[in-house]
Write a structure and sequence with these properties.
Blueprint (H helix, E strand, L loop, with lengths): L1 H19 L5 E9 L4 H18 L3 E8 L6 E8 L2 H13 L1 H10 L6 E11 L17 E9 L4 H18 L3 E8 L9 E7 L2 H13 L1 H10 L6 E11 L7
Antiparallel strand pairs: 1-3, 1-4, 2-3, 2-8, 4-6, 5-7, 5-8, 6-7
Length: 249
């Protein structure tokens, strides 16, 4: 009987530990700001060379997008790695790769391409996204990347609201949930919720958001969830279209 009890407790503890384990993959959102008029050159370099060299060094291409705003000169993309250590090793190997050096040199014969690079590290929020589902939609979808910066100690509240209500209400209003990330902030600061949803087109996006915000169920959920105070301090949003070489479209 004692042995059975010990076995039961061991099994329960193992199950709890496993269920609370974070996703093993380490994600990185990278943003490349190009010099004026050089975005097409960057896209050509990624399409013909960079994505393949990334894969060669153990980096997984997740998705590539450019903003829909006119005159933009920016590329957004996400890579996945087995771990932070693997990420650092992969980039070191990539930077030293003779093939990459030759590609970079040749592509910049007429001038530098990238003016500035920003990077954000993330994990999948396991409560909101179990696994990224790669999809090649036809016609291509319009993507919206949204980042929720919460008031102090309110991050668990936004996750709970999305888990229990918001995602379902998005779908009801015609929006497609794509993937939800938890950012990794410096010094262990509170993460933000960074996620991607998809729309048919710009007009559909406008209608979906109007329907969502006017939905009595959403109003009820929002009011109940904020009974003890506001959750979200700021929302950053950007509409994007996938590149022709993106794994997700």
């Amino acid at each position: 009987m004692k042995k059975l009890l010990i076995l039961f407790l061991f099994t329960m503890l193992s199950t709890m530990a496993f269920s609370k384990a974070k996703p093993s993959k380490y994600y990185e959102l990278r943003i490349y700001y190009c010099h004026e008029g050089r975005l097409p050159n960057l896209l050509t370099r990624f399409r013909d060379h960079t994505t393949k060299i990334f894969e060669k060094h153990g980096m997984e291409n997740i998705g590539y997008w450019t903003p829909t705003t006119e005159g933009n000169n920016v590329l957004y993309y996400i890579l996945a790695y087995p771990s932070k250590e693997a990420r650092d090793a992969s980039w070191k190997a990539f930077g030293a790769d003779p093939e990459w050096k030759e590609v970079a040199k040749k592509s910049e014969e007429s001038g530098k391409i990238v003016a500035k690079v920003e990077s954000k590290f993330m994990t999948l929020n396991s409560e909101l996204t179990k696994k990224i589902k790669f999809k090649q939609a036809n016609p291509e979808r319009l993507f919206e990347m949204r980042n929720y910066i919460c008031f102090p100690d309110k991050y668990p509240n936004i996750v709970a609201r999305f888990r229990d209500h918001t995602r379902k209400l998005f779908e009801k209003s015609g929006m497609e949930n794509v993937m939800y990330f938890e950012t990794i902030e410096k010094d262990g600061a509170q993460p933000t919720l960074l996620y991607f949803i998809a729309h048919k087109d710009a007009e559909s996006a406008k209608k979906s958001w109007a329907d969502f915000r006017a939905d009595p169920n959403w109003i009820k959920v929002k009011d109940a969830s904020e009974a003890s105070g506001k959750i979200v301090e700021r929302v950053d949003s950007i509409y994007m279209k996938p590149t022709d070489f993106s794994k997700i479209k």
